[in-house]
Amino acid sequence: MSDDQELDLSALPDDELVAQMHDDLYDGLADEIAEGTNILLAREWTASDVLNEALVEGMRIVGIDFRDGILFVPEVLLAANAMKAGMKILRPLLAETGADTIGKVVIGTVKGDIHDIGKNLVAMMLEGAGFDVIDLGINTDVDEYLDALDEHKPDILGMSALLTTTMPYMKVVIDTMVERGIRNDYLVLVGGAPLNAEFGEAVGADAYCRDAAVASDTAKELVLRRRMMASEDA
Ligand code: B1M
User: Fold this and answer.
1) Contact criterion met (CB below 8 Å) for 209 and 191
2) Residue of 10, 38, 87, 171 with fewest CB within 10 Å of its CB?
3) For ligand 1, is residue 206 a contact (CB within 6 Å)?
4) First vs last C-alpha separation in the chain
């Protein structure tokens, strides 16, 4: 629309800019999302405030209209691309850390599932907390997870699922780890919108993480606790 093209984002006050970014995300306008992200950062917003208030909130609105049949897959794909344009700018800021590496995480979205925005956010927050992150991407099957564990010997395996039809695959992975006698060699964290703590417990994970911040706090806490227990046993 010509009105939108002429809109000077930098002239908008913060609240109007954020509302405009929600609209731009909805319309899948990646360049505008990148521009809005840079403007908010230049106004000294923290990376996590930009992420949560402008991007995640915008995607929440998209999710509602997707659920209600107002938006369809192609539009939501564009919105996801726009979100990624903002996340690309935020990534180095969220991953910025002076801390030494505190552990290693292998993470991936489970087989049958191609949603990766939440998983990518979790990976960024873990990097920011000082973890080395090996990201297996989307549609990850049990062999890919287990090969990565073997190759990278991480402290943590993280799995993401956004569909009620794909979340049971987490149990396939954990059960295979049990069968192979390697389950207790790793901490297993699971997350994704349709999961909850009961599900995490039922599939045999060490913890369910509601969001990326919880995932990073939980990862730090469990790795430190495990190291303390190991040093007490030694
Ligand atoms: Co899809 N989709 N989608 N989708 N999509 C949902 C998930 C849905 C809830 C939409 C809806 O109906 N309201 C619905 C699932 C319904 C259900 O199963 N109950 C749905 C559907 C049905 C589908 C398709 C089947 C649609 C179709 O084809 N008819 C299809 C499935 C494709 C497949 O995977 N096989 C599909 C496709 C797509 C797109 C490709 C168009 C696109 C994905 C693009 C991409 O990811 N690159 C898409 C999107 C964008 C969504 C919504 C709108 C947004 C998801 C998102 O990115 N949220 C989503 C609606 C919604 O969730 N409200 C929807 C933002 C993100 C920051 O949040 O991912 O929840 P989230 O991640 C959070 C936490 O969950 C947690 O931390 C993250 C950050 O705080 N977390 C973890 C996530 N993973 C973690 C891992 C951890 C820890 C925490 O490990 C330790």
Assistant:
1) yes
2) 10
3) no
4) 67
Is 213 touching ligand 1 by the criterion CB < 6 Å? Answer: no
The SS3 call for residue 135 is strand
Quote the ligand 1 centre to 137 CA distance (angstroms): 14
Q: Are 122 and 107 in contact (CB under 8 A)?
A: yes
Cβ of 93 closer than 6 Å to ligand 1, yes or no, is no
Residue 56 near ligand 1, beta carbon < 6 Å: yes
How far apart, in whole angstroms, are the C-alpha atoms of residue 22 and residue 15?
A: 11
Question: Under a CB-based contact definition with an 8 Å cutoff, are residues 46 and 97 in contact?
Answer: no
The minimum-distance atom of ligand 1 relative to the CA of 83 is 57
* Residue 110 DSSP symbol: B
**Tokens standing for residue 33:** 């999302």
- The 8-class DSSP code of residue 44 comes to T
Q: Does any ligand 1 atom lie closer than 6 A to the CB of residue 117?
A: yes
Reported as a single tens digit per residue, the pLDDT across 104-120 is 999 999 999 999 999 99
Amino acid at 225: R
